[in-house]
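Input (structure):
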């Protein structure tokens, strides 16, 4: 497991070393002390989790260390959790956004390899999220799987706007796993 020193974290976050030590001592950032010397070390995964929890961008240098992740966008939490269970069982990291605006913010802060997306959400709907995502050059390779209970014409419109695949609700875990594994290994 790769670790970072307090100094490296201070550099990534552009803060004073003492600030990082306070984060660790207060429990905001998980860390541990090296035996004998007492220097702090933080696991890269814990640092990335800290950045995500506090809405801070993940440094490019750490992107390759992070496992490929899936952003799940659905305003119905039971459905989002169901998708999350399937994705985690397949061995992938996940984040959940409960609306289109939150999805846009998370996309700008993170670099998921795939996004599952509901079309019917209050505020910014799934179509708007697809259009926004496809306008960002950073996300041109992001795979978008629309999971919706809407009719075939609505699903076809999502494909026309730039979705890579669609899955009708209710979906089978087997079908979802197949699509996830196909997209995440491309």
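Output (sequence):
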């Amino acid at each position: 497991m790769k670790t970072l020193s307090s100094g490296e974290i201070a550099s990534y976050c552009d803060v004073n070393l003492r600030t990082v030590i306070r984060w660790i001592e207060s429990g905001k950032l998980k860390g541990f002390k090296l035996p004998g010397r007492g220097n702090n070390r933080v696991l890269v995964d814990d640092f990335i989790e800290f950045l995500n929890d506090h809405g801070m961008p993940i440094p490019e240098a750490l992107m390759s260390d992070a496992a490929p992740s899936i952003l799940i966008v659905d305003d119905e939490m039971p459905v989002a959790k169901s998708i999350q269970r399937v994705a985690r069982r397949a061995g992938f990291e996940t984040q959940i956004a409960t609306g289109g605006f939150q999805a846009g913010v998370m996309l700008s802060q993170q670099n998921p390899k795939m996004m599952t997306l509901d079309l019917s959400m209050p505020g910014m709907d799934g179509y708007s999220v697809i259009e926004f995502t496809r306008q960002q050059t950073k996300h041109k390779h992001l795979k978008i799987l629309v999971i919706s209970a809407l009719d075939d014409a609505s699903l076809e419109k999502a494909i026309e706007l730039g979705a890579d695949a669609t899955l009708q609700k209710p979906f089978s875990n087997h079908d979802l796993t197949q699509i996830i594994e196909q997209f995440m290994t491309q």
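Notes: The two ends are 25 Å apart (CA to CA). The longest helix spans residues 77-89.
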